[in-house]
Amino acid sequence: MSADEWGAMSKRAVLEVIALDAEDAVAAQAGGADRLELVTDMAADGLTPSPTTVAGIRAAVDIDLRVMLRLADGFAAGDVDRLVGVAGELRAAGGDQFVLGFLDAAGGVDLAAVERVVDALDGCPWTFHRAIDRAADREALRKQLACLPGLDTYLTAGAATGVDEGLPTLAAEAARRGEPGYEQTILAGGGLRLDHVAGLREYGVTAFHIGGAARPDGWQGPVSAQAVARWRAVLDTPAGP
Question: Rounded to the nearest 5 degrees, what angle is found at the Cα of 172, between the Cα atoms of 168 and 178?
């Protein structure tokens, strides 16, 4: 299901949960997640999982999966040839949606790297991740990426430090939905708490991303279906007028 189709589901906000393995995936789906972001190594803020892991998760759940394409900590693309090869391996393992985002040394989008990887995805839907929150110019980045095939979502906190500081930016960008460069869904995430949800929904944000919030025991413990269900219940509460 595309982000625009989700946006049409006005009575159900989208909940995306980070999963490291099949156990996480099963718990997240049981709790009511709509989609998973698949990563490994959260000490490095989430890197590309193995094709074997992706295949195992794909066999364990039937909700949408977005697979991270990020080979090392930071926001540089690194070895683009390797990224392209890994993308092909992940697609062969069942990956058909992805997450990526590369910046150059000046904080601009590394458009050449993004275009090469997106070309290898051959139209698969993808999210530009929180690299946007480290960009020197968010608007310029959005406009440069606007016409790339498959881009339907920005995962963003509105600020590098998280949603607390980024709320004004999220509100401003949500208000521009439909303008050139702003057609994509805002997926709010990065220090996101349940008490942020009502305000974000008032701004028109309809998609929410959680990682640690789904893990009562921290990243050393698994996703809790009960924790995900608490988020699901809040998101299923009708938004205010």
Answer: 155
